[in-house]
Write a structure and sequence with these properties.
Elements: H1 3-11, E1 21-26, H2 33-44, E2 48-50, H3 64-76, E3 81-83, E4 86-87, E5 92-93, E6 97-99, E7 104-108, E8 123-127, H4 131-142, H5 147-163, E9 172-177, E10 180-185
Parallel strand pairs: 1-7, 1-8, 2-7, 8-9
Antiparallel strand pairs: 3-6, 4-5, 9-10
Helix pairs in contact: 1-2
């Protein structure tokens, strides 16, 4: 199973948000969501919305209403969405960007699998990496200047997932491997043929 085969399966899903198949990629901060989503987006030819552009310092997780109003509602009407990405350095919103109602739209970020968004998702993928390992990768990536931010973030992420977990509702679990990615059925995956993505033993990794 290649990443192109996964992309093909996602394209064949019924639309979930108006004409759009909205696919969420969730996981702990530092788990590799952005990199994996980039590979999948290239295979799909699909646009990506990064939740880092929606969240803010003041609203690490309290951005649901803004996402629904600026993105989900217009896509559900088959219209182009307009949203203002947040600049984490200047702590201000940048000029608006557009997000077209493409056949598949990927949304990646911590908390995309929250209960308020799940009804709009065609599939939810979860990056399967323990939180402490993911956070350590994130801290290493961001450097010492972000130490204070990470202290606040990890506490906020723990609170969020304790109140509104995503992983139990994931259709697919994504494991990063040295040669690519390995995708298996998640806790919410059905037993139908569309869910038979890989076998957990000896399957060909996605790359």
């Amino acid at each position: 199973m290649t990443i192109h085969a996964l992309a093909s399966r996602l394209r064949r899903l019924p639309p979930s948000c108006g004409p759009v198949r909205l696919v969420g990629v969730d996981g702990h901060a530092g788990s590799g969501k952005s990199t994996f989503t980039g590979h999948l987006a290239a295979a799909l030819g699909a646009p990506v919305l990064h939740l880092d552009d929606i969240a803010t310092h003041e609203e690490l997780f309290a951005w649901t209403d803004r996402l629904l109003g600026e993105v989900i509602t217009p896509l559900g009407r088959g219209e182009t969405a307009h949203y203002q990405p947040y600049d984490w350095r200047t702590r201000a919103f940048a000029p608006a960007r557009t997000l077209p109602p493409a056949p598949v739209v990927l949304v990646e970020g911590v908390g995309v699998g929250r209960r308020a968004l799940r009804p709009h998702l065609a599939r939810l993928l979860w990056m399967e990496l323990p939180r402490e390992e993911a956070w350590e990768r994130g801290r290493t990536r961001d450097g010492e200047e972000q130490t204070a931010f990470w202290a606040g973030w990890t506490a906020a992420e723990q609170r969020h997932f304790a109140e509104d977990p995503s992983r139990p509702f994931a259709d697919l679990l994504v494991h990063q491997r040295p040669m690519g990615y390995h995708v298996v059925r998640g806790p919410a995956g059905n037993s139908g043929p569309d869910q038979e993505i890989t076998d957990s033993d000896g399957s060909t990794p996605l790359c």
